[in-house]
Amino acid sequence: MQFGFSVVGVVFLLMLFVPNIRWAKNQPQGYEELASHEDKTLLMFERVGQVLTTCSAVVFVCPRAFSFPWLLWLVVAFSLMVLYEIAWVRYFKDGEKLDGMYQPLGPIPVPIASLPVAAFLLLGVWYQSPIAVAAAVILGVGHIGIHVGHLRELPKR
Questions:
Q1: What is the pTM of this model?
Q2: Rounded CA gap, 112 and 102, in Å?
């Protein structure tokens, strides 16, 4: 585990934040109602995980950077972020409907929630930082848990 400023982490965060900023400016109809039913414990995990993951992404660097086999972890993590971008493109292209946020991407369930969590977990492995890995796990418990809860509520609507 090595401290420093991670340009790679900043790129991952930009890939995460840009579609979320667009989404936040025009949330789909019915989202606020779903959000009002969120489990408070999961919400706490999500918020703590967001802060820890964001900080970890920026302050850790990989001590072996682009050497083999560490480069493979980074390639897989980046590939997951590319899939995340594809999921958002599909969502925006299909009319930004509430149920579109939760559609699987091939075999990947709730991709808008699960893909970035998996990517940041692998980024933590690349950093060789147990703190970054733990941050992604905490984020995943909350973020994926909340989205699965939303998905379960959709058919009731």
A1: 0.94
A2: 7
Between the CA of residue 31 and those of 35, 43, 101, 153, what are the distances in Å? 6, 15, 10, 11
Strand partners, 108: 105
The full length of the chain comes to 157
Task: Give the residue carrying structure tokens 């982490």.
Answer: 9
Calpha distance 135→129 (Å, rounded):
10
Is the torsion defined by CA of 35, 39, 45, 48 positive or negative? Answer: positive
* pLDDT, tens digit, 9 for 90 and up, residues 86-133: 999 999 999 999 999 999 999 999 999 999 999 999 999 999 999 999
CA distance 119 to 84: 9
Residue 147, judged by CB atoms within 10 A of its CB (0-12, 13-18, 19+), counts as: buried
